[in-house]
Amino acid sequence: MPSGFLDVYDWSYGFEFGANGCQILDSDYETELSDDDVWSLGADGGGNYYVVLTSGRVAVWFHEEEVIEDETQFDNLDVFLWSVVRYQAVRAGVLDLAEVETDFRVLGQPGVLAPETGLLASLA
Predict the structure, then answer these.
(1) How far apart (Å, rounded) are the C-alpha atoms in residues 13 and 73?
(2) Proportion of the chain above pLDDT 90, given as a percent
(3) pTM, whole model, 2 decimals?
(4) Contact assessment for residue 16 and residue 36, using Cβ atoms and an 8 Å cutoff
């Protein structure tokens, strides 16, 4: 995971995908979404964006594929923020992973549990 995890800059919050020549594909790699379908919260430090979907779910938009993957999603903004705050606390050494790992697993969020892209995978 890049060191600039969930950085919020003037260019990342409310990022205008269309105005910046970026396509937004849903996880099927076919359905095109628009700026009206997502709201950018911030960047992950590697060029990808955390976005809120009109459904209320939070996901990662990958800049290279220009796609939102199912395995990066969180049920809602509350669960996303709960997860990233604890993720950052573990990275900073404030919390031990063992203290929060069970809670992460109980929540069952793909954005945390996905084997290669989930938050837990980046902490291992």
Answers:
(1) 18
(2) 74
(3) 0.87
(4) no
